[in-house]
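A protein record in our archive is deliberately plain, so that people and models can read it alike. The tokens are whole numbers drawn from a learned vocabulary of local backbone shapes. For reference, a complete record is included directly beneath this paragraph.
>
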Amino acid sequence: MGADAETALVEEVVVTPANMNDGKAGPGALPPDPGDVFADSAYRGQHFCDAVRAKGGKPRIAATAMWGHDEAETLARLDAWNRPIHRIRARIEKIFGTWKRSYGLRRMRWRGIAKASTQVLLTAIAYNLKRTFNVIGQKTQLPRPA
């Protein structure tokens, strides 16, 4: 899934079979001008990073391990690298959680990739409609007088 980092609106969705690696499916969810692309370590492969760079983006992939001589220094570098990535990824993971909790995507209703895609796309549309009203509401609220 590709989502806007500021509004959390879903922009791209790619539904794949369960036996397909995330890194191979990821390029299909990239928008035309992706900017910084935040992802978890499943997308660390060269295939995905090359696809991001080809579209003019910068891959910001979470690291799960780093090598170094001093353990404390290595852990500090790992934390410094992942901290900004985790802040953005938390917004995306929240969308998945909302879909599972509120829109019934704990299980797929139908079998087959085409029908599953339909269910996910309808869920994305419903989520975006509700999220749009929340974003518009936040922007139009007037500040309260002090």
